[in-house]
Design goal:
Layout lengths: L4 H8 L5 E9 L2 E8 L5 H10 L3 E4 L9 H7 L3 E6 L4 H7 L9 E5 L6 E5 L2 H11 L52
Antiparallel strand pairs: 1-2, 2-6, 3-4, 4-5, 5-6
């Protein structure tokens, strides 16, 4: 989940080297897609990623070698994944396109030659900001929900109760009905 997504979109939209910034909603969570108009410097990005305790690994090297028409059906263009340290089995499955849980991805635009940085959480955005040389400002925490004050309780004095049954109330006597006037 990416908090302050609208602020991030506005900040990145006019940075030199960035062609387009998009918010892409998925059922698994929102993603921030940043399309560059220059190749991403993988050496520089790798240093930043290692400094934060992550690793960049190649992704889907087998489907990416398929003919373009078939490759577009099986491969979504992701070339690298940024994730925590992975085991040998995870690295093996990466070659066939089984994606691990990562914080960011690098992809090739299948309809052009541009690269796309896809961040799926706040740590991925932090890496992107550091790569771009921008000051990273953490998201503002949500304001605490203010609970409405409970209504003031009015206390009524306790009513004394006796053990004797209540006395019957006298029924008021009925007044006689007025008689109609006499005809003269």
């Amino acid at each position: 989940m990416i908090p302050d997504l609208e602020r991030r979109l506005t900040e990145l939209r006019f940075i030199q080297g960035i062609e387009k910034v998009e918010h892409v909603p998925y059922q698994t969570g929102d993603q921030l897609w940043v399309r560059f108009n220059q190749p991403i410097d993988l050496g520089k990005l790798d240093e930043i990623v290692k400094k934060h305790g992550y690793v960049i690994t190649r992704f889907a090297s087998v489907p990416s070698r398929l003919p373009r028409g078939l490759g577009e059906l099986l491969w979504d263009g992701i070339t690298h994944v940024i994730a925590k340290r992975m085991s040998g089995w995870s690295r093996f499955t990466l070659k066939f396109g089984f994606e691990p849980d990562g914080i960011a991805k690098l992809a090739m635009d299948l309809h052009g030659s541009n690269q796309i940085f896809i961040a799926s959480d706040e740590e991925g955005i932090q890496l992107l900001y550091e790569y771009l040389g921008l000051k990273y400002v953490p998201p503002t925490p949500p304001a605490p929900a203010v609970k409405p004050a409970p209504p003031a309780k009015t206390t009524t004095p306790p009513v004394a109760r006796s053990n004797q049954p209540a006395a019957p109330q006298p029924v008021p006597a009925a007044k006689p009905a007025p008689s109609p006037p006499a005809n003269v």
